[in-house]
Amino acid sequence: MQRDKHKRKVSHVILVTSDATDGDVKQFRIRSQSLWLVLVALCIVVGAMIGYMIYEERIWQMVGNRSDELQAQIQSLTEENERLKEDKLSLETQISGLNETVEILSETVSEKTKREEELLAQMESQSMPTEFPLNGSASMEESAEGNPACIFTASPGTMVVATANGTVTGVNDDVEYGHNIWVDHGNGYVTIYRNAGEPQVEAGDTVVGGTPLFVIEEGKEKLGYQMMKDGTYIDPMEMLSISG
Questions:
Q1: CATH architecture for the domain at 138-243
Q2: Domain residue spans in the chain?
Q3: Do residues 229 and 148 touch, judged by C-beta distance below 8 A?
Q4: Rounded distance, CA 130 to CA 132, Å?
């Protein structure tokens, strides 16, 4: 039996029918090589579609994860912003409270300073020897000899008193009057009281305006009153006239 010199060509028949009862049957003849090419192309297309779907799914998964991260960051930033607002409100409240405290303290310091100034002025005023050196009425004459002095004549029982706050720096015998008492008022003023009565204070005693120094006795009615400023005798009447 003799073999054919050429290979037999193989063809495939594709039948296409319809669901209709009277539908025709169509035949399509396709060579084997063409069928394989179609199948390979179809596989490539299907594979590409599957790969694209997998890639797209991963892309969307990454987008979803990124979206979740962004949402978490937004939520964290929102919470941080709310916390900062609360902290700011708390700080503003604290600052307001501190401002009120500073204002109160400032007013307190101002009031304290004012009271201290008033107290200092009062103390300075109380240390100025402007008061009358007797607690009762008396006649007065000014000395025409020696250092300036006022000579008072008072009734027995009248007290000689300190004319301002100060410290007794000396209680001495006095040739003309019997005794003398020196009071330093701490501001450059020194007052001197001369009388024959018994001194009621001692050196080192602290006195205030009105403190008894002598008691005028019968036959000892004279009081010599002198004043010094920074070591120099001055006319006592100049201070008495200032006080009115």
A1: Distorted Sandwich (2.70)
A2: 11-61, 138-243
A3: no
A4: 7
Residue closest to 30 by CA, chosen among 16, 9, 14 = 14
Asked if 224 and 194 count as a contact pair (C-beta separation under 8 A), the reply is: yes
Q: pTM value? A: 0.57
Which of the 8 DSSP states describes residue 148? Answer: -
Dist. CA 167–CA 160, nearest whole Å: 16
Question: Rounded distance, CA 180 to CA 225, Å?
Answer: 10
- pLDDT (tens digit per residue) in 128-173: 999 999 998 899 988 767 899 999 999 999 999 999 999 999 999 9
| 171: Cα separation from own chain's centroid | 54
pLDDT category at 216 given cuts 50, 70, 90 is very high
Q: CA–CA separation, 228 vs 223, rounded Å?
A: 17
In angstroms, rounded to a whole number, what is the distance separating the alpha carbons of residues 131 and 240?
Answer: 6
Which tokens sit at 156? 């027995």
At residue 72, the 3 state secondary structure works out as helix
Rounded CA gap, 5 and 24, in Å?
39
Dihedral angle, C-alpha 56, 57, 60, 64, nearest 10 °? -170
202 contacts 168 by C-beta, under 8 angstroms: yes
